Amino acid sequence: MANTTNILLSLLLATLLSSFLIHPTESTAVQRRSAKENSAEVTAEFIYSHNMVRESHDLNYFSWSPTLAGYARWWANQRRGDCAMIHSNSDYGENIFWGEGDGWTATDAVEAWAAESAYYNYQTNSCMPNRDCSHYTQLVWRSTTMVGCAKIKCDDENTFIVCEYAPHGNTIGQWPY
Fold it and tell me: 138: exposed, middle or buried (C-beta count within 10 Å: 0-12, 13-18, 19+)?
C-alpha cells in the first residue's frame, strides 16, 4: 500500500531529524526527559502503530494533530505525580495506558489497546461480558481522522501514555467501521 511507504518514509525522516536536534545541557535535565518522551521518533512510532491497526481494517490513516498532542501532554503532566488511570474531561476520544517501569513504548500501548479486539463482537457491536473493548473501537473508529499522544515517566518511575482522538469515537448505537 502506498500509505505504508509514506509511513516508513516519515519514520526515516523523523529519525534523521531527531539526530540533528541540539542536545540540552545538564542544567536542563527535565527538558531533556520531556524531549525524549515526545521526540520526533516517538511521534512517528505513535502514528505508525495506530495506522498499522487501521490498515488491518482497510481504514484511512490517522493524521497527527499537534493540538491533540498538546492536550495529551497537558493531561499526562497532570498525572505525573500519581500516574493514575484517570480520564480527562474533554470532548476528544481518549485512550490511556500505564506500565510498571519506564521501558514501555508507544507501540506497546497501541498493541495493548488493539488486543481488546478479541473481546469485540462486530455482529452485536458489543464487548464480551465483563470485558472492555472501547480502547480498540476508538482505534478503529471510521470517522476519527486525527490522533495526538504523549508519553511520560511519572514521579514513581512508571510510564503513563495518553492518546487523544478527534472526532471522538465510541458513539452509542454506531458501529466503529
Answer: buried
At residue 79, the 3 state secondary structure works out as coil
- For the record, the C-alpha cell of 167 comes out as 472526532
- The label of the residue with cell 512517528 reads 44
Least confidently predicted of 25-34, 67-76, 122-131, 139-148: 25-34
Residue 17 pLDDT class (50, 70, 90 cuts): very low
* Chain position carrying cell 502506498: 2
In contact, 161 and 104? CB cutoff 8 Å: yes
**What is residue 37's predicted lDDT score, i.e. its pLDDT?**
64
For the chain, counts of helices (H) and of strands (E):
6, 6
Is 48:140 a contact under the CB 8 Å cutoff?
no
36: cell is 525524549
Residue whose C-alpha is closest to residue 42's, from 144, 162, 165, 167: 162
Residue 78 zone, left/alpha/beta (φ > 0; ψ -120 to 50; rest): alpha
With residue 146 as reference, give the H or E element that holds it: strand 146-153
